UniProtKB/TrEMBL annotation:
The keyword Cytoplasm applies. Microtubule inner protein component of sperm flagellar doublet microtubules. It comes from Terrapene triunguis. Residues 96-115, 152-181 are annotated as: Disordered. This is RIB43A-like with coiled-coils protein 1. Residues 97-112, 161-181 have a biased composition (Basic and acidic residues).
Length: 181
């Protein structure tokens, strides 16, 4: 590298000597396993770890605070909902009490429609009611007021007919049995 056999001037010699000294120190640093750091700044890494731990702790505390606040808000919301339910229940109860107190059934406008003690007759009693003329619009084609009675009579008639058929069949079986013996 350096030509050593040529005489050098004192400035150049001093610079060369300083360069050699720095090189020696560098080599001792490189080959000294105890003090060697291979491109890693340990203090910087420690500070980064500390910062990360501090940040995680801060986030954890913040999350715990938010959780506690959320629980508090949930309780307040539940209390408000319960108060609203009670308020609505009291309101409905007050309306019902008002209806019972101020609007009894006999004072209502439609009381005559569902009065159980009404002595009046219905608008029409049969298909041939003399009170209902053509303009009364009380009798319509296809309408049958006697339908329930007619169906009951038809069912009774059908039951009697079935009983007669059963009795006739039993007599016929008995006759064939008696004739066969």
């Amino acid at each position: 590298m350096h030509k050593v056999d040529l005489p050098l001037e004192s400035k150049e010699a001093a610079a060369l000597e300083a360069r050699r000294e720095r090189e020696k120190q560098r080599l001792t640093r490189i080959f000294n396993a105890r003090h060697r750091t291979m491109g890693v700044d340990v203090e910087a890494l420690r500070s980064q770890v500390e910062e990360r731990k501090l940040r995680e702790e801060t986030e954890k505390r913040r999350d715990e605070t938010y959780d506690a606040e959320q629980v508090l808000c949930d309780r307040v919301a539940q209390m408000l909902e319960e108060e609203e339910r009670q308020r609505l229940r009291r309101l409905h109860q007050a309306v019902q009490e008002f209806r019972e107190r101020e609007q009894p059934p006999p004072t209502r406008r439609e009381w005559d429609l569902y009065n159980p003690g009404c002595a009046g007759t219905p608008a029409r009693v049969s298909d041939y009611d003399p009170r209902c003329g053509p303009a009364s619009l009380q009798r319509f084609a296809g309408e049958d007021l006697a339908l329930p009675t007619r169906r009951r009579l038809q069912q009774e008639q059908q039951c009697r007919s079935l009983e007669d058929q059963r009795a006739e069949r039993q007599r016929a079986l008995a006759d064939t049995k008696y004739a066969g013996e």
